[in-house]
Amino acid sequence: MKEILPIFWLLYMALMSLTTQAKQADVMEIEAVFAAYMDKYNDYLRHGELTNKTQLYHDKMMVLSGRSGAAVTSANKFNEQVKGFLDNLKKQGVTRVSWEKVGIQQLSDSVAIVSNRAVRYLKTGEVHNRVGATYFINKVGGSWKISAFTVHSPNTVLPI
136, 113 in Cβ contact below 8 A? Predict the structure, then answer.
């Protein structure tokens, strides 16, 4: 029995190492989704064109609003709403947006919560404002995509 114990220990450690590596890979993939998200917004602010290099949203997604409650929409319809939202930011003088904080908490191999704080900048480089947003994302067909989100105060970003 004493001879078998080290073998079980080595197998356990190897399994734990593989699990950790898989989770690290998932976190890197999720970070890439949110980098693409910001690239998409900034491309529109600069060029007035919403690029779809990376499909960020599931075909059906939920948007939660404090004013109007929950609404399910298609990714295409939501992209049209994003254009209106970004046009409004442009009218306010916003020329660039960046993530100040990206917090990721995996709930399983295919579901995660991402709670972020974005900073919106004017042409002068001055901060226009900050906003918080929290997302449910899941991995389907090997890709992480946003399935639900809500915008909120930058002070209530989850501490993850």
Answer: yes
d(CA 57, CA 79): 9
Spell out a b/e string for 21-48, using b for 16 or more CB atoms within 10 Å of the CB, else e: eeeeebeeebeebbeebbebbeebbeee
pLDDT digits (tens, 9 = 90+) for 111-144: 999 999 999 999 999 999 999 999 999 999 999 9
Give the pLDDT band of residue 18 (cuts 50, 70, 90).
very low
pTM exceeds 0.90, yes or no = no
3-state SS of the chain is: CCCHHHHHHHHHHHHHHHHHHHHHHHHHHHHHHHHHHHHHHHHHHHHCCCCCCCCCEEEEEEEEECCCEEEEEEHHHHHHHHHHHHHHHHHCCEEEEEEEEEEEEECCCCEEEEEEEEEEEECCCCEEEEEEEEEEEEEECCEEEEEEEEEECHHHCCCC
